[in-house]
Amino acid sequence: MTDADRILGGAIGYPLVGKIALVTGGTRGIGLETVRALAEAGATVVLTGRDEAKAKEVAAGVDSVEGASVSAVGLDVTDAKAVSTVVRGVAKEHGKLDIVVANAGVLEDALLGMVSEDLVDRMLSTNVAGTIHTVQAAARAMMRKKTGSIVVLASIVGERGSAGQVAYAASKAAVGNVARSASKELGRYGIRVNGVAPGVIETSMTEHLGEEVLGERATDTPLGRLGKPEEVARAIRFLASDESSFITGQILGVDGGLVL
């Protein structure tokens, strides 16, 4: 891709040409659609997943624009040292790191009386500690260039709570505040930190709710339907790009108006 192509691409629909992006938990659902959205906008993307073989298989199947690429590496975000190693490795290989999407997370439902210690540990170690590890490592990699965009995955449940999701709601409320707090620390380094808070999205993580419950959630949503993972991915792409250059510390609801 020539310099002219890069300039033209940025103007007509490839705003991420030349950008290096890392997406955790990028093998399915919102994470996978985010990888696709970033790659289609011209970014070179590295996705992570706990199962490295699966992650590499997924990466091989994602199309990207000319001059970009999609690769993968195995990563468990609960391991702080591993997160640091992967982030530093990506930054070293490509000479910089422009975008990090802290998407890796888990969801388990349980009524309050059935919430176990193990369930709480899984929610907090992956959703909260994993996000903090990722944001911390990303910030260190971005500080030298004094620029970068970090996007975390919060949830509407973290904003308004949900019966049967005490632990998950608590973890996602924490994730939103990771973004808000980190943005206040990192703004002086030119690093923006934002989040998206999806509503009920049609992914494998919500299939367990069943058609009846999902139908009720769709009816409760002002737009009258469930969201699609690609709709969340487009919001993430916006926050990752320079089109949102004066936006930081915000949690963008992508919920069809459900939070109203």
Automatic annotation (TrEMBL):
Key words of the record: Oxidoreductase
Keyword Manganese appears in the UniProt entry: no
Keyword Oxidoreductase: yes
Biological process terms in GO annotation: fatty acid biosynthetic process
Ketoreductase domain segment(s): 19-199
SUPFAM superfamilies the UniProt entry points to: NAD(P)-binding Rossmann-fold domains (SSF51735)
Gene Ontology molecular function: any one: oxidoreductase activity, acting on the CH-OH group of donors, NAD or NADP as acceptor
InterPro entries: KR_dom, NAD(P)-bd_dom_sf, Sc_DH/Rdtase_CS, SDR_fam
Pfam families to which the protein is assigned, alphabetical: adh_short_C2
Source organism, top-level taxon: Bacteria
PROSITE patterns membership: ADH_SHORT
Coiled coil: none
Family annotation (SMART domains): PKS_KR
PANTHER family: (3R)-3-HYDROXYACYL-COA DEHYDROGENASE, SHORT-CHAIN DEHYDROGENASES/REDUCTASES FAMILY MEMBER
Entry's family note: Belongs to the short-chain dehydrogenases/reductases (SDR) family.
Name of this chain's protein: 3-oxoacyl-ACP reductase
Species per Swiss-Prot/TrEMBL record: Amycolatopsis antarctica
